[in-house]
Amino acid sequence: MGLTPENLLRRPITTQKCTLGCPVLDRCLAGGIPCNSVTELVAESGCGKTQLCLQLALSAQLPLSHGGLSASSLYIHTELPFPYRRLQQLSRTFHHPHSVLRCNPCDSIFVHAVHNADQLLDIMPHIESFLAEPKTQLPIKLIVIDSIAALFRSEFDNTPSDLKRRSSLFFKISGKLKSLAKRFSLAVVVTNQVVDFIGENDGINGMRPGNLSSLYSSGRRVCPALGLAWSNCVNSRLFLSRNEEVIGEDKALADTCDRDYLCRQTRRQLYVVFAPHLPESSCEFVISKEGVFGVER
Amino acid sequence: MEVGRLPISASQRGKLISAGYTTLSSLSSLSPSDLARDLNIPDGEAVEILKVASLTNRLDKPDGSHAIVNGAQTAWDMLHEEQLFPRLTTSCADMDGILGGGINCKEVTEIGGVPGIGKTQLGIQLAVNVQIPVDYGGLGGKAIYIDTEGSFMVERALQIAEACVVDMSEYNDLLRKGNRSCQVKVQPNDILENIFYFRICSYTEQMALINYLDKFISEHKDVKIVIVDSVTFHFRQDFEDLALRTRLLSGMALKLMNLARNYNLAVVIFNQVTTKYIEGSFQLALALGDSWSHSCTNRVILYWNGDERYAYIDKSPSLRSASAPFAVTSKGIRNSASNSWPSGISIENTSPRSSSIRSG
């Protein structure tokens, strides 16, 4: 809070970003996930939201010289169980090539389960004091909420009064997250699910948020869950899509890709739907045992 | 009788009137010695009277010399004044066109649209453009940027500022045929330095800041625009008492309007859109309700039309409703025809999947 204006020249001229752990993806996002900001990852299940979040929680620990934040992270998950084994797996491949991390990276990821929106609001004061007086080796600079949509899965009917109560909760949660992000220079990442888009082709064209006139995943037209109100609550929105592909149809493409990629039949794409600092862009990526990696083509 | 209002002694006033000097204009082109002779007073006294008269004359001017009530203006004076002040360009000629030349000073303009339509981009553009020097047709002022959502990015502001400086030097070259003596002196860093940036994290902070702005601007008279991005965000969280919300909002709107008028600056506030249940179907509407919609002089809605961004004049006392396309480019807000980001960042529109995403 301040009634004195901030001199913009005294800020770093580029906002601090947290690497995603892959230079290709980082390039697409101009360095990674920005601090002081809420970034949303939208995708249907199985697109790699959680993979990307886990990788982010690991790469946040990298020193600044490696694009990380040199920080631990808080991972709030709504789905049970938390994918410990996958984190372990990622951390092993992660740990080895970057000898810059001395201790086990899993020790710097704090995990907390939350089941509904009220519970999340309840623990906010605890999060705040946790951030203010870190008992951790590295300060916390990353909060992941995976997923925000799951917090609102039940308890809300499709009535105007319930929808109103729900959207006021959106703004409350987002307001709290944004003020934490600002106070502690946090990168905040929330994941969101998609719902099938039902309606006329151009019926809601006027209200589409972002650059893409429609989002497709698994051959279905989808839109982010939680509606327009929630769209107003995030600073940036990224969309991950997957589409099945028949191998061998495109020989030229098959030749340029490595063997590992060929066994997969899924093509994954990351889109910048909207972000104050990024142009409309996209990047293809693959998920392997070692993690999530952008594909340069 | 105008001389009757001059803060001078009664005897001096009497002498003035009896000598036939009844209006301020009759004193305006008079030398002290002439006045001393006509009134039969020492030269020094005549100098004092003329000084007082010219001061009063100057104070009167902006308020209009025909006004009956102090501070009131005739419509003629207002028209004249409005024509004197340059408008603030949006850097998109088409949008300027429907706005009657750009954003108007002394007015509150509300701009609303869906997330990702380019509200923040337009806000940053205006914060940069307000600094275009008077020589270049700008306002040569500074900007106050009130960021309630945290979407302001310094790197983006720098990018837009750099493009603005390039545009100014091009303009300079065209106009002055490359006369080296009048180079553009403004640097992108200066532009950033002249944006007073406030990051607001709750509605109480927002109210406090708006209340404080009067003092701040009175100390920084060169501020020519106040941007609130967005006015909405903190007012959509958990307001049990909607009557209180309406009161707070209309109080805030009134204060912003006073700032605009008193300091002759432009106020631009951004609003979000929401869905409204009207006659059995959901329709898009700007947030904060009906009473808020009376709070702003002008209202502009940004929306998608196919794959193109459009601005629409929804409400204005002086402009006809019209719409115009605009584009968000790497340089900032521009005309739609030049719609392209640099291809430096891998944009893959070659694959059939990507193109199917754009085809909706």
Automatic annotation (TrEMBL), chain A:
Which Pfam families does this one have? Rad51
Locate the RecA family profile domain: which residues? Answer: 14-194
Query: Which biological process, per GO, is one annotated for this protein?
Result: t-circle formation
What is the protein's name according to its record? RecA family profile 1 domain-containing protein
Which keywords does this chain's UniProt record carry? ATP-binding, DNA damage, DNA repair, Nucleotide-binding, Nucleus
Which InterPro entries does the entry link to? DNA_recomb/repair_RecA-like, P-loop_NTPase, Rad51_C, RecA_ATP-bd, XRCC3-like_C
Record's keyword annotation contains 4Fe-4S: no
Q: Name one GO molecular function term.
A: ATP-dependent DNA damage sensor activity
* Entry's Gene Ontology cellular component terms: Rad51C-XRCC3 complex; replication fork
For the keyword Metal-binding, the answer is no
> Where, per UniProt, does this protein localize?
Nucleus
Instruction: Please tell me where this protein is predominantly located.
Output: nucleus
TrEMBL record, chain B:
Q: Does the keyword ATP-binding apply?
A: yes
Query: PROSITE patterns from the xrefs?
Result: RECA_2
Q: Which UniProt keywords apply?
A: ATP-binding, DNA damage, DNA recombination, DNA repair, DNA-binding, Nucleotide-binding, Nucleus
The UniProt annotation puts the region (Disordered) at 333-360
Which GO CC terms are listed, alphabetically? Answer: Rad51B-Rad51C-Rad51D-XRCC2 complex; Rad51C-XRCC3 complex; replication fork
Kindly list the places in or outside the cell where this protein is found, as annotated in its UniProt entry.
Nucleus
Q: Give this protein's Gene Ontology molecular function annotations.
A: ATP binding; ATP-dependent DNA damage sensor activity; crossover junction DNA endonuclease activity; four-way junction DNA binding
Give the GO biological process terms. Answer: meiotic DNA recombinase assembly; reciprocal meiotic recombination
- Domain RecA family profile, chain residue ranges per copy: 84-273
Could you tell me which Gene3D superfamilies the record lists for this protein?
Answer: P-loop containing nucleotide triphosphate hydrolases (3.40.50.300)
**Keyword Nucleus: yes or no?**
yes
Q: Per the similarity annotation, which family is this?
A: Belongs to the RecA family. RAD51 subfamily.
| Role this protein plays | Involved in the homologous recombination repair (HRR) pathway of double-stranded DNA breaks arising during DNA replication or induced by DNA-damaging agents.
Stated name of the protein? DNA repair protein RAD51 homolog 3
Q: Which species is listed as the source? A: Rhamnella rubrinervis
